[in-house]
Every structure is written in C-alpha cells, then in structure tokens.
Write a structure and sequence with these properties.
- The chain is mainly alpha-helical.
- Helix content is 69%, strand content 1%.
- The chain has a two-stranded antiparallel ribbon.
- A hairpin with a 2-residue loop joins strand 1 and strand 2.
- It is elongated and about 110 Å long.
- It starts with 11 loop residues before the first helix and ends in a 6-residue tail after the last helix.
Amino acid sequence: MSKPDADDWKTPLGYYERAIAELRRAHEEIQAELQNLKQNQTSQVELENLKAELQTTKEHLATTQKTSDDAHTELQALKEQLQNLKEPMPNSPSEDNAQSIEYLSQIKKQLSELQSQLQQIEQQQSFFKDYLKTLIHQSLLQINSHVSKLSDELTLISSASGTDYTKLRNLLKEGNWKEADQETLAIMWRISNRGNPGWCFLDDGDIQRFPWQDLRIINRLWIEYSNGRFGFSVQKQIWNSIQVPKNNDFEVEKTLGDRVGWRVNNNWVKYDELTFAISASEGHLPATLHLLGVEAGRVEHRVKLLFSHRKDL
C-alpha cells in the first residue's frame, strides 16, 4: 500500500489508516513502559535479596564476635587462676602440690581448648568479614547499576521540549542506524515545528532556537552507541580540524563532506546513498547536511551555526 498524502487523511480510508498508526504507536509505547517496569522490579528484588543477605551476614559476624569476646574473657580468667596457682606452689605441702599440679593440668587443658576455639572463631570472623566486604561490594555495584538505569531513563526525557528519546535510544542500541537517523531528523523537525519532514530544512532561526538540552541528549546517545564514531560533536571536531584559507566556510563544508562521506567524486550524495552502518566514516551520522539543506552557499553557514550553538557540544 502506498503512503497516503496529506489530503488522504480526509477520506474514510485515511482516517482508518491513521487510527491504525496511532494504535500501533500506543502499543509500542505501552510495551516499552512494561519492559521498563519489569526491569525496575527485577532490580528492586535483587536489591532486597542483597539487603537480606547483608543483614544475615552481619548477624553471624556479631554472634562470632560475642563468642570471641566470651572466649577471651574465659581465657583471661584461666590465665589468672594459673598464675595464682603458680605463686604458692613452692611453699605448699606435697599433697597440696599434687592437687595443684592436677588442677594445673586441667587448666592447661582448658587453656589449650580455648586457644583452639579462639583460632576457629578468628577464622570464622575472617571469613565473615571477607564475605561481608564482597557482599557490600556487590551491593554497591547493584545500587550503582540501578541508579545508572534510573538516571538514563530520566535523561531520556528533555527538560526543555519534553521529548522522550527512548525510541531513539533503542534504535541506536539495536544498531538500526538508518531508522535512528530518520528518528533524529524527525525529532529535530518536530521540535522546530516543521510540519513536513523530508523536504524542509532548519533555517538560522530554527538552529538558534533549538534547545541545547535536546541537542546534547541526541549527541550523547549517538556517541554512546557508536563507540564514539558518530554524533554532532564528532562532526564538530572534524570541522574544527580542517585547515583552509580564512573565512572560506564553503571549502570547509566541502572538505567536511569529503571527510565524513557526504561527498563522493565532488558530488553530494543523496540520502538513500549514505552508509547506514557502523563501518561508515567517522562523523558520517547523523545526516546533518540533509537536516540543514545541501544548497551551495547556504549549508556551510548553517553547519557552522549549529556547531557553535553549544560550546560544550
């Protein structure tokens, strides 16, 4: 079925197709929300399990510590008894000495048993301390991961335009470079109130008014999921590295096009001829020039304006 024109929406068939499209979009959004909820619930369960395990380990450690303290107290008491027995022995009658020696032997045996018990307790303490450190480390990793996920979800919604970038993130994550580029252009056209994506370009005013928060989110996602190969900031770095005669932005534009693969044999390539793959030249995507227009004498000014729009891009 061919794609309906703008006027086709006024026909019953057009309304029907539009309703189907809206239902499909709503279904995708609901599925995405359900997936996010499942991930959050799983993370919450993992955190609760770790907390319970930490509490159990702390209780074991407290128990072994009390046992160790009691054993140390008993050991000290036996040592004192042993010392008391040693002192009167030289002046005691032989029968009393025999009893003292027997008692002394029993105390030595108890001392030996206590020392062995203390060694076992100390080994248990060492084990539980190491285990507790491992659990704490795992807990911190889990918490950091959970916080990172929540942070990522929050930063996918622009505070300036209210745009949700979850779909763009998912497309980039899956390596659907062409769909991700089309989504990027569509978002930027929509934020700029351009009603017919695909043929109208952002002008100077659109670029200057474009929210820097959205520009940074788009750039961050492209950078992250392309391992630093694609993104506005990559294109900006290449632009700034080009050496041409001063005030000749048109030559800079052409050189940029050659460097990132937007120009082949001195001709600007059509959109469908771009390389939508990770193997493309660095800075090849997003298709910035197709967002701004490729007319000679206009593009270089808009590209420069876009790249200077945000200094920390």
